[in-house]
Design goal:
By secondary structure, this protein is of the alpha/beta class. It has eight helices and five strands. It is 57% helix and 9% strand. The protein has a five-stranded mixed beta sheet with strand order 1-3-2-4-5, sandwiched between helices. Strand 2, helix 3 and strand 3 form a beta-alpha-beta unit. The longest helix is centred in the N-terminal third of the chain and has 42 residues. The relative contact order is 0.09. Keywords: Signal.
Amino acid sequence: MNYTTLTLDFHYKLRETKTKIMKINFLSSISGILTLLAYTNAATSNVKTVISPAQFYETCNRNDSYTVVKYYTSWCHHCKRLKPIFEEVSNLYADHVDEDGFKVNFLNVNCELFGSTLCADLPGFPIIELVKPLHGLSVVEEPLNTEIEPFWKRIPLGFYNWAFSKKNPDAKIGQERILRYQGRRDTEAIHNFIATVVGKDKLANKVDLVLDDDYQCHEDDSLCKDGKVYSQRILEYIKGEPVYGNIANYINKERSKLENILRNNKNEGSTLKLVEFKLELLANIEARVDDINHDEL
């Protein structure tokens, strides 16, 4: 091998090394920018910027919180108009944990980065969705594999997202837990949507707990205790009545009685809450009775 060949080989390897260094710096910059954006966003609002699928699923798949997700792109005009509104809504829930221990999280998902994973099935932008808590449901038996290789080995971000979904096939959210917002894009309307969904979901979950024979109410949960007493009275009648028509009449009379109480006690908050809860219990029991009767037919 002569001097000219050695020189050319040296310059080729030098150029190849420089190219690799540039790629490493580029990938490092992407990660650094995403992390910086996340910290900057966290400092100015209650909205967290999603920087990985692992972060998204770990936030959404919790038992103690609801998660409101905004899917957007940088080129979408309506997304830009929604940004300050979404942040304003999020600040209404900042550091707030309700009487049942639930909080509301807010996430931003940039669909230019997660288009093939988190945003794959979306019809357009912006999209707002509310994800309900697991309420004790199991989602992933094994912990998510969130390890990322060092910068010098890291693959481009888009491929990393795809690889994460392949490595963690159970990292998903059941459709029954997702509600998509379709109203006006203003603070009051979005806030009302969140409050309504959270209220109804918590009520439905408490009804399920009360009707669970194995569930024991907490000492300070009077609503649960009163619900247990009420539902047991209704169920005892149903168990002792073999005629479905008589059961249906009994439930209808009970419903009418509760609705009359609601009409005549509009200003008594605690009374209304208990009566509304009893109506939910009654509706749930009625649905179960109807299912049993339908199966027998």
